[in-house]
Amino acid sequence: MTPQDGRDLVWSPTDAQPKLLTVINGARSSLLVENEEMGDSTVIAALVGAAQRGVKVDVVMTDSGQYAREFTTLSRVGVQVRTYSESATPYIHAKVILADAGTAFIGSQNFSSSSLKRNRELGLITSTPSVISGLQSTLSADFAQAAPWS
């Protein structure tokens, strides 16, 4: 079944990947990303492309050791990757993309093929100022407190 798609809804497996890519590719100055998984090559390529066109890209995750190749790819183009250890608090389980401190994706979608292309998941794209402000504050603090990945 294909769910009805409200203007701001992001459904997996229907349209999640293209809508996330639209948020990433639409960024002009900054992307602040918090996600639990980082395995989808198309999302990685979009983040690399954003960094290469001069967008400041910051990523914060819990480091399970599973995404070293992806973190290396991102770091090589200037993406700032910061991580928490698996035993640290908080455990990063959020799925958020904040673009230009004005548009945000919030949802259940990880950056994995199964989450974006097979699972039934739901997210929302918003530009509501109070939501953006809260996300900016929390994600910036999470990023600042995480250790630089190396």
Radius of gyration: 14 Å
β-sheet strand percentage: 25-35%
CATH class: Alpha Beta
Low-confidence stretches: none
Helical segment count: 5
Number of strands: 8
CATH homologous superfamily title: Endonuclease Chain A
CATH structural architecture: 2-Layer Sandwich
Overall pLDDT score: 95
Task: Give, in order, the helices and strands.
Answer: EHEHEHEEEHEHE
Q: Considering DSSP H and I runs of 4 or more, what fraction of the residues is helical?
A: 25-40%
Q: Structural class of the secondary structure composition?
A: alpha+beta
How do the strands of the widest beta sheet line up side by side?
Answer: 1-7-6-5-2-3-4-8
N-C termini distance: 43 Å
What does this molecule look like?
The chain is an alpha+beta fold. The protein has a single domain, classed as 2-Layer Sandwich (Endonuclease, Chain A). The protein is built from 5 helices and 8 strands. The protein has an 8-stranded mixed sheet, with helices on both faces. α2 links the parallel β2 and β3.
Brief summary:
The protein is of the alpha+beta class. It contains five helices and eight strands, in the order βαβαβαβββαβαβ. α1 runs parallel beside α2.
